[in-house]
Amino acid sequence: MPLRLIFMGTPDFAVPTLLELVAHGHEIAAVYTRAAKPAGRGMKLQPTPVEQEARRLGIPVLTPATLKTPEALEEFRAHNADAAVVVAYGMILPQAILDAPPLGCFNLHASLLPRWRGAAPINRAIMAGDAESGVMVMKMDVGLDTGDVAMAERLAITDAMTAADLHDALAPLGADLMVRAMGALERGKLQLTKQSADGVTYAAKVEKAEARIDWNRPAREVLRHIHGLSPFPGAWCEMALDGEQVRVKILRCEPADGSGGPGDLLDDRLAIACRDGAIRILELQRAGKAPMKAEVFLRGTPLKPPMRLA
Questions:
Q1: 230 is in an annotated binding site
Q2: Is 284 annotated as a binding residue?
Q3: With 80 as the cut, is the pLDDT of residue 40 above it?
Q4: How far is CA 288 from CA 83, 246, 291, in A?
């Protein structure tokens, strides 16, 4: 018999899981998400992607500012859910909430736990040069991504992948994994395994202060840094354009031949020297402009050596 679930999630990454649970016949008693925020030119309140989908599906939506009050707990219990599914909700669940559903609360996490517990596992896996990532379903406890693991799926990370690419690959993979986990839970067949104490790393939130490109690093590290921060916040450098230093975000690149001083422009196709090796810029974005392919940028702003990016 399908489960009665509370779904808790906020960004685009969570939407496929919500849709798959509905498609597989589970009853979503309520959706919890973060409150709408002002966005866009008119600063109108913008509901989260999960709220937009939930309202389209006719599912009740709640946006509590906290889950730590007796009132919030009473409301949560009143849904009479068998379990809760949590995907990038963005709010800590206190013990009383975790204990409320009789079958527990289950989180979809975008890493191969215990590696990359925390806020930014997709970005950090790419930036660290990891060969693979994945998704895991775990039964939540009060620790930071420390719960027992139910299921996992792995995915290779190539040097061509940006954070957006990996996000878009993991979201449907995770949705399928959570549906399988809830199916096993429904049948009483879900097995849990304790996380290892070895290999624990923390995926700290990405700060804008770490986005500047350091051309003194080896080319592969520069490439992974750029891709791990693409599209947001976007790794950046400065170029001398039209007689002034202009900040430019680099959104996509590839390995290139050649060598030179770190930051040197090596040809007229945006190959840039690093400490060891070089990268070629494939996509970039000037401040206040839309992202563009390198060839489009070069048609309007032809560049050639000697020039150094800072």
A1: no
A2: no
A3: no
A4: 45, 11, 10
